[in-house]
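Action item from last meeting closed. Structure (424 res):
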């Protein structure tokens, strides 16, 4: 297997609108730390794959398709490309499909971002060299479920008994001389430590800086998990979440980064195998739209733009892109163009126990929150309100869970998959 990698700073200038929080009422005012992008080209036998990771909240689906088309037109060996966002809530708005209250994208910035991807892709292709693959799994526990039942409804507060995914997975690409060329590190938690008007890569960026400082010359790439209902455990004396500053960003990044560095002493050899598959799955929407949390929604700032978005989508059907990237006999990534809640990632690991599964959200777009059926029954932000921010006509129905799982099962069989793994 051969790997090439390149990286660049992608921090926008002040004045560009940020993404992630509806309460923001003005553009960015400064920078806490730089946002970065990494591009990797992986080659094995006759297959070549591209991986883009970046400190953005998500990638616009149409933008991703266009950049992929241009990239693949210049590289006839390229089978497919993944665009994987860290989901930081303190970066620029990068999608034209979201409600404008979440920030409006800069066309000039998106054009520049496309050019940056293509420039890094060429650099990564020129950087290809032989590597060996290794992996390890550990634990980091600063994420907590954010769905608590109170007085018959679900509120956004820490729920220690709720599901979460503490697993840290590291995939290492090592040169034949023994030095680390690149590391993928995967964790499942919203990068929502920060919440102001300064650009920051949040805890994934702080972890990456710590890793790259400890291992000179390595390029670290963060992969976000199914973190839709998982938030950093920053809790005040009243039991409520709070936003942090640079110190909290660095503290949580240090915890994750130290675990990644520790895992380098436990890395296990992987046997290279490269394949990539994807397909789209149409998802069902609810036929009766629930009344959101917001009172008097028809007179709120959300309603006019949401109504216009729905009008433009007459006849539109939401389709989830499900991708699978297998890079060794054991290590396999599943990518989803949506904000997946944690139970999907946990289910994937149970379904394929013989593989080292890495569930990745926010890949090649973000359709909206995808929840298990029981969440649809319970309600809460992810079900009853978020669909308006994503410009959806209605929330996804409880049948979505089964549709997603069937879509995963419909992908071609995994290398080394046994028949008995077909159950749930």
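Sequence:
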């Amino acid at each position: 297997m051969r790997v090439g990698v390149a990286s660049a700073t992608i921090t926008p200038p002040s004045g560009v609108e940020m993404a992630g929080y509806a309460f923001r009422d003005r553009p960015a005012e400064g920078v806490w730390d730089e946002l970065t992008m990494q591009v990797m080209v992986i080659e094995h036998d006759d297959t070549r794959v591209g991986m883009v990771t970046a400190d953005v909240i998500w990638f616009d689906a149409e933008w991703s398709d266009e950049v992929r088309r241009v990239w693949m037109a210049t590289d006839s060996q390229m089978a497919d490309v993944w665009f994987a966002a860290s989901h930081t809530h303190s970066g620029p708005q990068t999608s034209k499909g979201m409600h404008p209250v979440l920030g409006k994208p800069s066309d000039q910035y998106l054009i520049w971002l496309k050019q940056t991807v293509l420039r890094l892709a060429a650099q990564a292709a020129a950087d290809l060299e032989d590597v060996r693959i290794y992996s390890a799994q550990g634990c980091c526990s600063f994420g907590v479920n954010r769905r608590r039942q109170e007085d018959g409804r679900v509120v956004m507060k820490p729920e220690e008994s709720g599901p979460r995914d503490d697993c840290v997975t590291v995939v290492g690409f090592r040169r034949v001389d023994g030095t680390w060329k690149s590391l993928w590190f995967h964790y499942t938690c919203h990068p929502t430590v920060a919440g102001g008007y300064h650009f920051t890569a949040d805890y994934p960026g702080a972890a990456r800086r710590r890793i790259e400082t400890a291992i000179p010359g390595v390029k670290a790439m963060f992969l976000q998990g199914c973190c839709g209902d998982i938030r950093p455990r920053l809790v005040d004396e009243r039991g409520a979440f709070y936003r942090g500053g640079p110190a909290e960003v660095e503290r949580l990044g240090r915890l994750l980064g130290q675990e990644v560095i520790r895992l380098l002493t436990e890395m296990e050899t992987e046997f290279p195998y490269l394949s990539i598959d994807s397909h789209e799955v149409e998802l069902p929407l609810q036929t009766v739209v629930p009344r959101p949390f917001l009172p008097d929604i028809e007179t709120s700032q959300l309603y006019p733009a949401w109504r216009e978005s729905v009008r433009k989508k007459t006849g539109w059907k939401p389709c989830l892109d499900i991708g699978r990237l297998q890079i060794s006999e054991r290590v396999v990534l599943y990518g989803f163009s949506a904000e997946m809640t944690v139970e999907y990632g946990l289910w994937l690991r149970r379904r394929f126990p013989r593989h080292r599964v890495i569930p990745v959200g926010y890949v090649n777009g973000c359709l909206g929150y995808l929840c298990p059926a029981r969440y649809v029954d319970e309600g809460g932000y992810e079900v009853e309100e978020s669909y308006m921010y994503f410009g959806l006509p209605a929330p996804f129905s409880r049948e979505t869970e089964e549709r997603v799982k069937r879509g995963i099962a419909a992908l071609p069989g995994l290398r080394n998959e046994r028949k008995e793994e077909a159950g749930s």
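Note appended to the action item: Residues 5 and 124 are 4 Å apart (CA to CA).
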